[in-house]
Queue: 4 jobs
Job 1
Amino acid sequence: MPILPPNPVLFKTPTPEETAREGHLAADLHVHTNHSDSFTRVRDLLRSAARQGVGCAVTDHNQVNGAVEACLAASGVPVIPGIEVSADDGPHLLLYFSVLSDLTDFYRRHIERKKRDGPCLAIKMTTTEILDAREGYHCIAAEAHPCGYVFLNRGMQEGIARGCIESGTIARLDALEVISGGMARVHNLSATDLARTHGLGLTGGTDSHLLRDFGGVVTCAEAENVEEFLEKIVRRKSVVIGQERNLAEKAMMGVAVLPHHLPYTLPILKGCVCQRLLRRYGGR
């Protein structure tokens, strides 16, 4: 029996038989901690990962402290150094690195000085500039929830259609997030079709802000280490298994996230208006 199923996108609850096989790495690739807009402590996340037998990527918004803590504290849990960067022209980019030192160097050289007042707000870099900055690092780039979050982020495809993102930019990605736990099924199916159309790799993650949601979506590949795991994603040798949260679970997450965003209400509203104008009229 093959290690990975023939269908690369499975809308179902992951089972240990699918995630805990020898020579096989499974990880939730979109997780937030209390270093960002979540109350989840890194040590609790790692305990949950160890119990479930899966790895994780801490991808806090425009921040790497949680990823650093996870990588340094992990014992037997595969941790992929990562970050979720909110681009000025809309898309949210998930960047995954083979080694922690590359992540921290990338953050300090390119992201830290471009952040705005709100920690989760779009930084002062476009999608193209972020992708330019990651060149030279052993890093893969995926777009998070590319067909969702209509009011906050219309994604790269919408930006291309509106003329504020160059048409060839999507080809510079390595993968798309085809199952995001916070999205509706219709959005994830559209993301899957988009990845197939452009020949991109497949990733998935819960986008969890509550510990209870962690591990509900995993990316799987035949790999012995993080570097090999990322390479399999680029080569389109990964499988994504998981399901979206129901409406009540999404509401719970919204309530949990709200206190982290309330202090930045005015900058958030200003940023939303600026992004809408950018999408409508193009340019910067």
Job 2
Amino acid sequence: MKPGIRIIPRLDIKGPNLVKGIHLEGLRVLGKPHRFARYYYESGADELIYMDVVASLYGRNSLLEVVEQTSRDIFIPLTVGGGVRSLEDIRSLLRAGADKVSLNTMAIRNPDLIRQAAHAFGSSTIVVSIEAIRHEDGTYEAYTDNGRESTGVEAFQWAQRVCELGAGEILLTSINNEGTGNGFDLELVRRVAASVPIPVIACGGAGRLEHVAEVIGAGQADAVAIASILHYAAVEHCFGDDDFSAEGNLEYLKSGQKFSRIQPVSLPILKSRLMDQGISCRPCSTKEAACV
């Protein structure tokens, strides 16, 4: 069991809204990202991940304003990704308040960007996001553009290469499992974690807290990025009188329904249960536990 496991809420963002999908598609609006970020910070999150899920599709990253707003009152590491195409993009996000920047699409198109970025900003600042699809023959392929575009790049070989190029961490997402609530792809996470010396953040599939424990134990993940089970527990605490008319599927917010395969859980309870199982993670303070 690896020590000091990090629990990281992942906030997928489309335009001004926090969204959540299944297999990175069918995005439904859940609220405003800064409200969730503040709530997770106060509830004991170790880090946060902001991902602009349509940035590569539209050829831009629109998170600068969101990052600036978040970094003013959130004092835990913030990783930001989506549409990052150049050293200047990375520099702009870091200046806006990001602590780390995640690369995917442009890293595969131009792998030397990883080396250049690690040299310019330090390896600890550069996270490479690998979005992998498991094919019927059991092979894994890295995809880009938020899981939309096939690359022909074998996922495990790519993981080893990004490490050699200087990446400080890998954010590893199973597109097959993402948003389903069926659990993580343990084989994918375990094989990548065993093949690289840098931390691997597992993402995609958590439907209940037992899945988080599984990917830490059997999957050997160094950190876990979680969305659905935390977001669906946080919605009632983070809903405000915001304007959601700009874009997005609002049916989930209007219906008040819960996704049947997801068992929502708060961060303090999740961490407490993990520690009960002997998994080392930063405990929530008394103040944070009061946010349950």
Job 3
Amino acid sequence: MATNTQVRLAARPSGFPDASCFRIEEAPVPEPKDGEVLVQNHFLSLDPYMRGRMNEARSYAPPVAIGDVMVGGTAGEVVASKSSSFAVGDKVVGAFGWQEYGVSDGRGLTKVDGELPLSVYLGAAGMPGVTAYVGLYDIGEPKRGETVVVSAAAGAVGSVVGQLAKLRGCRAVGIAGGRMKCDYVVGELGFDACVDYRSPSFADDLRAATPDGVDVSFENVGGPVMNAVLARLNAFGRVPLCGLVSQYNATEPYALENVAALLWKRVKLQGFIVSDHMDRWPRALADLSTWVAEGKIRYRETVATGIRSAPDAFFGMLRGANLGKQIVKLI
């Protein structure tokens, strides 16, 4: 009899998480009731926001309860249906979390046409892509000829941000960790420049890469990286604040040094959560899917195999070991 392997939250981390935070269990494959479908997940998305959901602290979404399946986006196939809206064989994107199967009444489940590889609907043509699209276009409001800087530029969101900036006629400058990632960002993704934040000359390199200053800073990292970019902002600069991954495992908060400049430079800094912008998803997904299919947006995936590999792949992503989107291939 088939079983449903699940990864559950076993303990809340203090600092960087480890294997003791998770528990792997075998459960029966659930049976769909009337109006429901059973989905076999083919791919699991791993994303930085999951680290915050492991904490008990107040946030925009409730924490994962101890003992619950870890949250996460999934892409898979309907294998049993008692719903008039879905047929066996439909490819769907949902949020079944870290497990091999899930049951849904259809809410939060989206059919995809399959014109792109299924995993891409968890990356460039999925939530990370929409995050880049909404954050840059709606909050950053880039104008032709402006300079857009994006941190974590080799990651799932950042890699799309820079390419969207180029589609708007902007100068795109990435920040990434290590020469290999910077070469990828410039050579394959088409950014104008990429700066290695690990380099001792990072501040000087950033200055050289942004000779006309920075008009839009798409922030994924926070900490010293954000501090360095704030110092380069032009008057009336815009900062879509998407993530602070450098701080997710920190036990002491990092204090920015350039806060006063936000005032006298009249900077717009706006934190955002992409799920607050559901009205923009249809247009964003349509554009992103088209641009990926046309090769105007390129992407990479770092792939772990099997649901049991999810914790280690998650730790690696938090350390920046992934290039592009981190996923887990389940079948």
Job 4
Amino acid sequence: MKIKSANFVISNTDVAKCPNELLPEYAFIGRSNVGKSSLINMLTERRSLAKISGRPGKTQLINHFKINGNWFLVDLPGYGYARVSKKSKKTFQKYITNYFEQREQLLCSFVLVDIRHEPQPIDMEFMEWMGENEIPFSIIFTKADKLKPAIVKKNVDAYLQELVNGAWEEAPSHFVTSSSKDIGREEVLEFIDSINDGFFKEESG
């Protein structure tokens, strides 16, 4: 897939105010310091589409970007570490939950995981919640350039095995990426493109 256009549409905290166009939607979410904004900018080849902050937890809104005029990329607030009050955190975690439970246009979510770390309880709990609520998702491992390829493979295998040993019959699809080295970009976009193809064929049929 070639990204010909990527435009910011709206930020809000109310799912009812999200775009009402019946276009495919893909949400990106992960712990607050996982490199989500850098990944979004890498995928869209737009240096500052998603705002990169030195302070983790900066994103606290549902951010919609229209891509190529026919699908939405959604940048969601990170879960876990964020320098906000407990009240604020509870508020935006509630509208994240509302988004996942109510957004019919959502075809797939991408849960971002830092490949450098062992499986974190907060990531595992979030993916378990996604599974229990039958919300389709894939895993994107970030920051692969920080490790040697053999260690990346070892860590990915360990993470997927942890999922299979838990509540999963088989691990979700996954991608290994590096925003600074453009690793994984084509694979993620081809995956989105394949889902879009199925969606538009069904709509036209």
